[in-house]
Predict the structure.
Amino acid sequence: MIEISLMALLVLYLIFVAIFIVFAIVNIYHLIAFGFLSFESFFMTFLLIAGTILILFITYKLGLAIDCSQAIVI
C-alpha cells in the first residue's frame, strides 16, 4: 500500500498557484510595457484577476474543511 499525504497535494497546488501568479504578473507587465492599454486588454486583464481571486477564494473555503494531516491510501 502507498500512502500519500494530503499536505503533499497542498504543496503541489501552492506551487501551481505560484507559477500561475508569475505568468499573470508577466502578462500584466507586457500589457503595460508595450502600450496595449485598450479597453479590451484592460477588460480581459480585469477578468483574469477577478477569476483568479474567485477561484482562490473558493478553494480556500473548501480547503478549510480538509484535515491535511490525513493520508490517502492507495
Q: What stands out?
A: Residues 3-73 form one domain. The chain has one domain: 3-73. The helical segments are 6-33, 39-63. DSSP finds two helices and two strands in the chain.
